[in-house]
Amino acid sequence: MFELLGIAPQALFGQLLLGLINGSFYAMLSLGLAVIFGLLNIINFTHGAQYMMGAFVAWMLLTYFGLSYWWALVLVPVIVGASGIVIERLMISRLYHLDHLYGLLLTFGLALIIQGLFRNQYGVSGMPYSIPPELQGGTNLGFMFLPNYRAWVVVASVVVCFGTWFLIEKTRLGAYLRAATENPTMVGAFGINVPRLITLTYGFGVGLAALAGVLAAPIYSVNPNMGADLIIIVFAVVVIGGMGSIMGAILTGFGLGLVEGLARVFYPEGSAVVIFVIMAIVLLIKPAGLFGRTA
Amino acid sequence: MNIAKPMLALVTGLLMTSSALAIDIRIGVLNDRSGIYADLSGEGSVIAARMAIEDFGAADKGINVEILSADHQNRPDVASTIARQWYDNDNVDVIADVPTSSAAIAVHEITREKNRVFIVSGAASSDLTGTMCSPNTAHWTYDTWALANGTGSAMVQEGFDSWYFLTADYAFGHALEADTSAVVEASGGEVLGTVRHPFPGQDFSSFLLQAQASGAKVIGLANAGGDTVNAIKQASEFGITQAGQALAGLLIFITDVDALGLNDAQGLVLTEAFYWDLNDETREWSERFEAQRGAKPTMVHAGVYSGVLHYLKAVEHAGSKDAELVMAAMRELPIEDPVMGGGELRIDGRKTHDMYLFRVKSPDESSGPWDYYEHLATIPAETAFRPLEDGGCELVN
């Protein structure tokens, strides 16, 4: 049996698969960020908090209303997305004519407030949320034991990511959206309600974060800090992929998951920084990101 | 006649000071108030300190106690800035709690430099009373050696003799791993390997699979709080425990078990210095605590209570808040309180008391919220902690 740097190939396949699973969370979260930045020009720092809200609302639906995971998958993005729409209407919409920094500060402040409120109410230890019975157990692939739930996460994430890409890049609605960001006055003149389009886009981006939160709830601890821990990495993913590039966010999300998975085998202590090292290198060589277009 | 009134006031004043102490004490409770250790320490430790002051009856004894609290965010740099500020500008006499060993080590050094008192409850590293020991520090509740000794030797005795460690990559994790490895090897077991994960972590599946591939009988979790919760959850998800490998949670608090749920936590063997349901006194105290906190106390909270209570007794005994006199009184006085029972404060700063080995109940065995532990064994104070001569503390001899 050949070995690569002391690691058996089976173990390596296992680790790559795990990297892909983590990558699917990165991809879904960075996709939402990229959609919001690409179409609204807002750097949405509330994204991590909205991901956390997704997991918490799923837990609330189960605890207070007895609604299962499957209900949560449908309801949570709508509920949290609606809360995003309220935030967009009341606050973010007032900042479009200002510099990026104002949007960044507002959303960052909102994230701190939301996390603080949840922490105050629920503490930091987290809430138990079980894997739905239909997805419990796993399959032995020979080189590793793949839990059914993780397989489901990868499939769901791939479908959602490419569905979103298709919606924005290949449909008429997507064309309106892209046109509206390019020249809002012109698109408005054709009778399209541009502000509403933008509000709904923000709601959709937030809904994506919430959906990722629901997918994460059964495997990660549902706690108020879960988004804060992840959001920094996700921002690095978006920067590497190129701010605002939909396909860039998806591919870099999965790709960096794989890289991180490898780092966990070869140099575990460095696995937390490997993404940032890559970010620094990419910014030096290609400042607009791997898939970004320089303006 | 003119001077009668002031004279009277002076005499009364003198009389009053001689019957009571009139000492102002400031206690700084420094811990994690927003991160992964906020539930096991946090505001609960402030409540515990306040309960100690009330139960001691400080006001009646002429000792005026004030509590300050702050969030060190589990960062040594933040912890040392606050500790310096408290000692230099706010006249704080004693700092209590300080989870996260790296932060506690920072405060430990500053306390020695400023000659004040440090009562550690939340931090675990046994180095605090070993090579780094200080005459100003009392390590109150538990340490990595005691955890390793309790859980480690109990597991090896049950036949789990080959270990692989999943270690949080900072001072605490390293100390816990080192102490447990020593216990495992001394009990005839072997350590097959170790993987160090970033702190705090989120996804442990890669590390768990590496541990699984090692073929060790036990995966030792040398981490704490949310990291342990996530690792245990994911080990069950990846079928690691079902496939026959055992998990040893080397530091698990009751708040972690609560967060995991008994379904995932059942069967874990763990070592604690305190459990609310040990006896009538702990139940009564925990009920008072719960009324204020909304959750049962952890051993860290119990340790803050016990430590602050004993500190105040020592101040009363010494009639002074001078760090040297108070520390001497703390060592001299017998330690006895309703929460952690009897014990002593050793010259190396280690406070000894009984430790307990528990097993987490299954959902069927539990009668409701917080009924989580089945008592397996009591490790007597004499053997629960590292022998004085083994720590390498220069204060010994």
Automatic annotation (TrEMBL), chain A:
Record key words, sorted: Amino-acid transport, Cell membrane, Membrane, Transmembrane, Transmembrane helix, Transport
Gene Ontology biological process: amino acid transport
Alphabetized GO MF terms: transmembrane transporter activity
GO cellular component: plasma membrane
Subcellular location: Cell membrane
Topological category with respect to the lipid bilayer: Multi-pass membrane protein
Regions that span the bilayer: 12-35, 68-87, 99-118, 149-168, 200-220, 232-259, 266-285
Homology family: Belongs to the binding-protein-dependent transport system permease family. LivHM subfamily.
UniProt name for this protein: Branched-chain amino acid ABC transporter permease
Organism of this sequence: Pelagibacterium lentulum
TrEMBL record, chain B:
Top-level taxon: Bacteria
Family matches, as InterPro entries: BCAA_transport (IPR051010), Leu-bd (IPR028081), Peripla_BP_I (IPR028082)
Residue ranges of every copy of the Leucine-binding protein domain listed in the record: 25-361
Keywords: Amino-acid transport, Signal, Transport
Region forming the signal peptide: 1-22
One Pfam entry name: Peripla_BP_6
GO biological process terms held by the UniProt record: amino acid transport
Annotated PANTHER family: LEUCINE-SPECIFIC-BINDING PROTEIN, PERIPLASMIC BINDING PROTEIN OF ABC TRANSPORTER FOR NATURAL AMINO ACIDS
Family designation: Belongs to the leucine-binding protein family.
Protein name: ABC transporter permease
